[in-house]
Every structure is written in C-alpha cells, then in structure tokens.
C-alpha cells in the first residue's frame, strides 16, 4: 500500500512539474529505451498527458514510456501519439512517431525518427514534426509526403495550420495527381 501511495505522489509531482514549470533552454536530445540506469529524474511507462483550457481538452498525448529531465525541463518520450481534436470537427488529427519530447516551458511537442500524421483520408509523413501550441501549427521537416485520395505531394519543409487544416509546402515541391482523382475533391 505504501508503494502505491509513493508512486501516486511521484506521478502527481511529475505532472505538476509538467504543467507549472518555467523557461527551459533549447536542446535537442534523443531518448533510447528507458532503463534503470537512465540519467533522468523520473521515468514511467504507459504514460498519458492531457492539456486542457477552459474546460476542453486541447490534446492528449500517450507514450509507451517517458522520462523527465528536471534540469532541461523536458519530458522525453518513447513511441508518442498525439490526438488533437480540431474545433468544430468530429475527426481528430493523430500524430505518432518513435521518439519525442515535450518542452515544459511552452508545451510544444517535438517528434522525430519518422513521423506519421492522419486526418480523415489524409496521411502525412515526415522525418520530424514540431507542434507549436501557441500557433496551433505543426511544422514539418525532411522528406515530407502527403497522400490524399489520388494526390501526392512531396517536399522538404512544410507546416499544417490546425485551425484551417491548410498544408503549406516548400523546398523542392513535387505533386502527383492520379487520373480521375478530381472526382473525390480535396
């Protein structure tokens, strides 16, 4: 019983640090499998975090495991998945990757090592994605592929506005439109 109380208090402490932390310096890190000897302050498995505002959930993040680095004020994630509901729409945006991190100061989320995004019939893949909370924008970097009902777009950089679901692409943009794909609409 005492272990459960200590574990519960530890989880509440980490979540409190997550939501009430100050500025964090920027540093890009990777996280491998979290082991007993990992250089972190706290590690957990089967993690779920939610960010809400004014009674509504802005996003839910799930990960197989996470570790918290208090010095860097980062939550490092293994196999993170973000579920983000768009205003007034029933279909959520789902973003997943092998690795990720949450910046405690900004609540921004960076995913890397092969990002996969889904929104209805649209699939979008990139090497890295950064979800900027303030702008409600996901910035994409490296080998972007958007696929939607007979239309494919490739580029090196891009962004997705989560208010409008407008996708912008730049850097060697290539578009392939399959025959008869205009009948489906974009």
Question: In terms of topology, how is this protein built?
Answer:
Elements lengths: L1 H18 L22 E12 L2 E14 L4 E5 L2 E5 L6 E5 L2 E5 L5 E11 L2 E11 L4 E12 L2 E11 L4 E5 L3 E4 L9
Antiparallel strand pairs: 1-2, 2-3, 2-4, 3-6, 4-5, 5-7, 6-7, 7-8, 8-9, 9-10, 10-11, 10-12
Summed up, what is this model?
The chain has 186 residues and is mainly beta. It is built from one helix and twelve strands, in the order αββββββββββββ.
Structural overview:
- It is built from 1 helix and 12 strands, in the order αββββββββββββ.
- It has one helix at residues 2-19; strands spanning 42-53, 56-69, 74-78, 81-85, 92-96, 99-103, 109-119, 122-132, 137-148, 151-161, 166-170, 174-177.
- The chain has a 6-stranded antiparallel barrel with strand order 2-3-6-7-5-4.
- A hairpin with a 6-residue loop joins strand 4 and strand 5.
Distance between the termini: 56 Å
Poorly predicted runs are: 4-10, 12-38
Q: Output the radius of gyration.
A: 18 Å
The biggest beta sheet is recorded as: 6 strands, antiparallel, barrel
Number of helices, counting only DSSP H or I runs of 4 residues or more: 1
**Strand segment tally:** 12
The chain-level mean pLDDT equals 80
């Amino acid at each position: 019983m005492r272990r459960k109380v200590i574990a519960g208090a530890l989880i509440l402490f980490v979540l409190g640090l997550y939501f009430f932390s100050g500025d964090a310096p920027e540093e890009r890190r990777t996280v491998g499998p979290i082991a007993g000897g990992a250089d972190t302050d706290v590690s957990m498995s089967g993690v779920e975090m939610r960010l809400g505002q004014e009674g509504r959930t802005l996003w839910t993040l799930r990960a197989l495991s996470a570790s918290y680095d208090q010095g860097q004020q980062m939550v490092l994630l293994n196999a993170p998945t973000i579920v983000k509901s768009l205003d007034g729409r029933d279909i959520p945006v789902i973003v997943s990757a092998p690795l990720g991190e949450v910046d405690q100061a900004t609540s921004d989320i960076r995913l890397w090592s092969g990002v996969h995004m889904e929104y209805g019939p649209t699939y979008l893949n990139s090497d890295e994605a950064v979800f900027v909370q303030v702008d409600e924008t996901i910035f994409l970097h490296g080998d972007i592929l958007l696929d939607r009902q007979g239309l494919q777009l490739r580029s090196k950089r891009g962004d997705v506005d989560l208010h409008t679901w407008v996708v912008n692409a730049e850097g060697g943009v290539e578009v392939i439109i399959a025959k008869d794909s205009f009948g489906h609409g974009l």
